[in-house]
């Protein structure tokens, strides 16, 4: 059995009355989930809705708690790390992380960044060892896949596109997800959402058509 962790990061929900309104990235994730469940009905799903319930930002006390050895932590420090522990446990259980996210200000939403800050934690998800030289950080977990399903209002964020240099969404996610043990990252993006024209419809169709081939790539890795 494969375990999938579905994370939704859009501040917008799904509009069940009118699919042209509401979160596009959530629609993509739901399409993926439905296709996956049709093929692999026995798999386990974990859900985390960051748009509806953004994680707390980390704080000075949070950082101090992380750097305090586990057995020396006070009850207050254990409480501070409780959410992080829960979120890391969800990641640890997952073979595949299905992440739906909008682009906000050319990068990830604050709620998603808050989640990454909570789950990338020393001695839990990465180790730090100066004997490794200039790259002292190494992930503790391994073998995970991540599927990033994103939506943007503008366009041209793909390799060679007119806004490639302004895309700080997927490249940032690719960099940080390494520290969660993600070894394979696949992404599909719907663009032109703000134009609401035929190009947006075509982009959405292309992304939806990409789900099948993407599942074909994930199958051999996790089945
Ligand atoms: C606060 C905010 C910031 C945004 N910033 C960008 C941006 O920098 N570039 C872009 O192409 N679209 C931007 N958009 C448009 C969204 O990426 C687009 O509406 C996308 O479909 C949102 O994802 P969702 O449909 O899943 O909610 C922004 C939208 C909002 C609400």
Automatic annotation (TrEMBL):
Q: Which UniProt keywords apply?
A: Flavoprotein, FMN, NAD, Oxidoreductase
Query: Key word NAD present in the record?
Result: yes
Region: Disordered; residue ranges are 203-223
From the UniProt record, list the reaction(s) this protein catalyses: 2 a quinone + NADH + H(+) = 2 a 1,4-benzosemiquinone + NAD(+); N,N-dimethyl-1,4-phenylenediamine + anthranilate + 2 NAD(+) = 2-(4-dimethylaminophenyl)diazenylbenzoate + 2 NADH + 2 H(+)
Question: So what EC number does this one have?
Answer: 1.6.5.-, 1.7.1.17
Cofactor descriptive note = Binds 1 FMN per subunit.
* GO molecular function terms attached to this record: electron transfer activity; FMN binding; oxidoreductase activity, acting on NAD(P)H as acceptor; oxidoreductase activity, acting on NAD(P)H, quinone or similar compound as acceptor
Q: Where is the Flavodoxin-like fold domain?
A: 20-187
Q: Which residues bind FMN?
A: 10, 23-25
**Mind telling me which PANTHER family this protein's record contains?**
FMN-DEPENDENT NADH-AZOREDUCTASE 1, FMN-DEPENDENT NADH:QUINONE OXIDOREDUCTASE
Instruction: Fill in the subunit field for this protein.
Output: Homodimer.
Instruction: Give the UniProt family note.
Output: Belongs to the azoreductase type 1 family.
Q: What function does the entry list?
A: Also exhibits azoreductase activity. Catalyzes the reductive cleavage of the azo bond in aromatic azo compounds to the corresponding amines. Quinone reductase that provides resistance to thiol-specific stress caused by electrophilic quinones.
Q: What is this protein called?
A: FMN dependent NADH:quinone oxidoreductase
